[in-house]
Structures are given as structure tokens and as C-alpha cells.
Design brief:
The structure is a single chain. It is built from five helices and four strands. It is of the alpha+beta class. A four-stranded mixed sheet has the order 2-1-3-4, with helices on one face. The protein has a single domain (2-96), classed as Glutaredoxin (3-Layer(aba) Sandwich), CATH 3.40.30. Helix 3 (30-40) packs parallel to helix 5 (87-96). It is 39% helix and 25% strand. The longest helix has 11 residues, at 30-40.
Length: 99
């Protein structure tokens, strides 16, 4: 979890996406996440976290449904939602938190 602390300790927004390979909704989000990452460039990061490989972290953050998306900035969770989201919504949410 110390790596997670380092990960969220950033002044730029960070979009975390909790997923697993078997979940079809998670898989359908891949092109959306690529669009978000390319649109935001260096002003934000998009990081996918496989819950099957990060069970303790998913449990600690109470991830129950997939995909679960979270926006962090300066160690603070600013937004969280489970389920499919479109690129424009995510880009808008992230831009709201860009310094």
C-alpha cells in the first residue's frame, strides 16, 4: 500500500480504474480510457488496477463493482463511481480538478 500512497501523492489529477480481465464492461472501457489519457496528456494520469492482482488494495478501498473509477489529487479522493463512463464525462471531471 505504500506504493499506492506514492501514486496518489501528486498535484495532478489521477484517474484510477479498478477492473478485471473477465469483466466485459471493464474491457469496453479500454478505448475510452485511451481517449481520456491522450486528451489529458501530462496534466493527468490514467492508471488501471487489476483487482485480481491487487486484492488487498481493492478491499481497503471497498471496491465492490467493476469497473470502479476514482479521481485522486493531493492524496484526496475527489470523485468515485462504479460502472461504465464515457470519455467526455471523465475528461470534464478531470479538467474540473486540474490546477
Amino acid at each position: 500500500m505504500s506504493k499506492f500512497g506514492q501514486l496518489i501523492d501528486d498535484t495532478n489529477p489521477l484517474l484510477l480504474v479498478f477492473y478485471n480481465e473477465a469483466d466485459s464492461v471493464s474491457s469496453s472501457m479500454n478505448p475510452v480510457l485511451k481517449d481520456v489519457a491522450s486528451t489529458m496528456g501530462d496534466s493527468a494520469k490514467v492508471i488501471k488496477i487489476n483487482v485480481d492482482k491487487n486484492i488487498k488494495l481493492a478491499e481497503a478501498l471497498r471496491v465492490k463493482a467493476l469497473p470502479t473509477l476514482m479521481i485522486y489529487k493531493d492524496r484526496e479522493m475527489l470523485w468515485r463511481q462504479s460502472g461504465e463512463q464515457d470519455a467526455n464525462t471523465l475528461i470534464g471531471l478531470i479538467k474540473d480538478h486540474v490546477a
